[in-house]
Specification:
With 284 residues, the chain is α/β, with parallel strands linked by helices. 14% of the residues lie in helices and 26% in strands. The longest helix is centred in the C-terminal third of the chain and has 14 residues. It is elongated.
Amino acid sequence: MMSEQRSTVVTAESRPAQVHPLAVVDPRAELAAGVVIGPGAVVGPDVQIGAHSWVGPNVVLDGSLIIGEHNKIYPGACLGQEPQDLKYKGAPTEVVIGNHNTIRECVTINRATDEGEQTRIGNHNLLMAYCHLGHNCELGNGIVMSNSIQVAGHVLIEDHAVIGGCLGIHQFVQIGGMAMVGGMTRVDRDVPPYCLVEGHPGRVRGLNRVGLRRRGLDRKDDGQDLKQLQEIWSLLYRSDHVIAEGLKLAREQSLLPLADHLCTFLEGSISSGRRGPMPAVGSR
């Protein structure tokens, strides 16, 4: 009687992590199924890498670092290192990265400064070569950052912002969702959502109409949401009212989601402790 033979099928979901012989991976690091570690990469003991993420040659992953699934990290990137902050005294802090992000060559992402704090990145973001994210930064989802963007500490960037290359972002600045920042802009104040900004110093040029159309917002609610956004933007930036007065007038209306988010962002931006909103072109 022949004994029954069983074969084991290895699927993409069950494939073990692949570590190149020239990589250095601490045995305490956690590598999920399908992770690939390239030659010369260094992975520290407190690193967790989610399923099917790819770590290219000579990448350094160190400190308390959590990386989600299906991320691609290109050669020379350094993630999870100590913050470049003189106040840092060795407190346990983290970098947390979501899923489906592309992190290109020589990107640096630093841990937060004070105990229990995090530097966070969401999902489906593209960080091009030589970008730097300082301590305590927070990125949403679907953000595109072009080459050589230097982001200081405590910066917040909302979903689907697009940021041009070769520029610096001042600490504590916030950049609103679907904003477009032109290359080489000096970003030293908050960038309102849905706006196009450019210049040195940066100035608001108008609404990011191309980005809004690409997101299909010109078709949402027969275009009424976008139409009202234009009206409220003109009230805030093209009328004789200062922004605080314009916001009060805007709140007398029943605002749709786009205009409501713009007003909420600006109300926060003019509050105590914030950098304040970037003015429109022609303003000082």
